[in-house]
Amino acid sequence: MKKLFALLLVCACLLSLGTAALAEGEEMVPVCVSVPETWEAPCLWAWADDGTNAFAAWPGEEADKLGDTGWYYCYVPSFVQNVIVNANAGAVQTEGVVVEAGKPVWITVAEDNTATVSYDAQTDAEIPEYVEKITVHAYVPLEWKTVNLWAWLDPDGTNAFETWPGKAMTENENGWFTARVPAWVNSIIVSGNEGSVQTEDVTIEPKELWVTVYDDLSYELAYEDPETAGVENITVYAQVPEDWAGPCLWAWSAPDGTNAFAAWPGEAMTETDGWYALEAPGWINSVIINANEGSVQTSDLTVETGKDVWVVVNGPEDAVVSYEQPTGDAAEPEATPEATPAPSEAPAETESGGNATVWIIVAVAVVAVIVIAVAVSKKKKKD
Fold first, then answer.
1. Are both 50 and 93 inside the same structural domain?
2. Cis peptide, bond prior to residue 255, ω within 30 of zero
3. Which of 129, 275, 277, 306 has a CA between 20 and 30 Å from the CA of residue 188?
């Protein structure tokens, strides 16, 4: 996927650094989508032409139902100029859809995944005002067949969702479940099996959080990803062809798609001791080395988490990854072979032409011998 959009984009920050940087007070505009019936939990991925992404990781922000209209809505920053509508945890998607920045837009997705754009409202339903949201992650016992999130504001009792057990949480490939809730909530309950088992009330702060639920329904709350907490930064080193100017590093975590940097082509690398280098989060496991303002790049390179890495780039599809600094020839990108200068043109001698030259030389030599012989003979007669 990333390669599919590497020419376009991508992405966002390390969770500790924040999602794609939104200026404080950034205006948000609604994007409304209508999708095929087989598309579950539609999401929006969105970015600007300069590669700045609206959301931290693929598949982006989940859209909310717009009443009973069959439409969904999602707010994006006003800088957004491109969107992808996707669903089923990113398994189905449209191509990139160009939209006008700062304008509410309605996108209809057909069965063949093509999209039609309109700036005229497609329903009379009123779009709810924008509400800032936070992400709640939950890791639950394996016996839980379904996982839901209930959230409210204590003590006034305002609920974020209409009915118990609340919003269904989406399972990610790493085994965690996620859901988004309004940032004004301060209490949650994680429940399973259609609400038949649950945690006690959990008091939270208005920021991204992780809840680990144990078999006895006790829990552990954290505001930093337990899987990456304490992971030290690493350094990525690269050597690139001579015509690769201004090398940059793009890095992310697969398969969840969390990016280390806010926008393509990533962060500029600094030249030192014959290598270009840049510090990156220790949790990354995928990198792309690119240059010339992102117009040339390697393919996606898989790297081990938590280890410094050296990448020798010989070309877009030729890069060697190692975890110790290469020495000797292995540390130098292969030079582009220089064309061997063509010899200056000269009339080609044919075989017969070559033989003629030889006979001429022989004939001259014979004549010379004869002349000398005659001269000697004449000299002897005078004596």
1. yes
2. yes
3. 129
Give the C-alpha separation, 192 to 149, whole Å.
9
Domain boundary among 189, 222, 255: 222
Tokens for 252, please give them: 């992310």
Confidence of residue 355 (pLDDT cuts 50, 70, 90): very low
Q: How far apart are CA 383 and CA 380, in angstroms?
A: 5
Residue 154 lies in a domain: yes
State whether 95 and 7 are in the same domain.
Answer: yes
Q: Which of 57, 99, 61 is nearest to 81 (CA)?
A: 99
Distance CA 230, CA 224 (A): 9
- Consecutive H or E run containing 32: strand 28-34
Residue holding tokens 């069965």? 111
12 and 104 in one domain? yes
> Are 44 and 144 part of one and the same domain?
no
Supply the range of the domain harboring residue 282: 234-331
Residue 226 and residue 256: Cα distance in Å, rounded?
15
Q: What is the pLDDT of residue 331?
A: 61
If one compares 380 and 29, the residue with the highest pLDDT of the two is: 29
